[in-house]
Every structure is written in C-alpha cells, then in structure tokens.
Design brief:
four-stranded mixed sheet; 106 residues; mainly beta; 4 strands; 8% helix
Length: 106
C-alpha cells in the first residue's frame, strides 16, 4: 500500500522528525494527513515537498531517507537543505518522477 511504502521511506529518520508523520502515541498518521505531502483523489502520493529554503531551518532533517520505497505514483520530490547523506540508486526511483530536487545536502 502507499501508506506502508511511505512509512518505509521515513522509517530511519531521526525520532524528532517523525512528528510530522506520527501522532502522540508514535503511530503513523494516514499519509493524507502528512505535512508537505500531496495525495491525489485516488489516494496516491504524487508530490513530496520536505525541502527547505537555504536560509530556513528544515522542517525535516535527517541523514537517512529510503527513496527506493517511494510509491510509483510520485511525480515530484523536493528534498533541498535537509542534511541528507549517502548514495542513491536512480534506477529505484519511480518511473513517473518528473521533478527531483535534492540540492544542498551532504
């Protein structure tokens, strides 16, 4: 499901960053309630804007995010200035992806 995939995407983010994704009992919220995440009328994730402007403090900051689990319906991803690190296998990104901005990370 889209819900399970998105939970895997953020599964290793540092705990304080789960606040936008989890409730007070540490249960994942429904993805339609996730901040900066756009869902279409069919319940599919179509865009993710978790980035920050260079002069802003990022709303989500984590060294690890699992982009290989992004749902195939995702068309836009913005992850600028989040202090992400690591390598990315672009062959595992969604085929529908049109915009992918990840500048100013580690």
């Amino acid at each position: 499901s889209q819900q399970a995939l998105m939970e895997m995407v953020v599964s290793e983010m540092v705990e304080e960053n789960h606040v936008g994704f989890q409730d007070d009992n540490a249960h994942f919220r429904d993805i339609k309630d996730w901040e900066y995440t756009t869902i279409d009328d069919d319940g599919n994730v179509v865009s993710i804007y978790w980035g920050a402007d260079a002069d802003e403090e990022p709303q989500f900051c984590s060294p690890k995010i699992h982009l290989e689990w992004l749902p195939e319906t995702v068309e836009e991803v913005y992850l600028q200035n989040l202090k992400l690190e690591g390598t990315l296998d672009c062959t595992k990104l969604p085929k529908a992806l049109r915009t992918f901005e990840v500048d100013n990370n580690l």
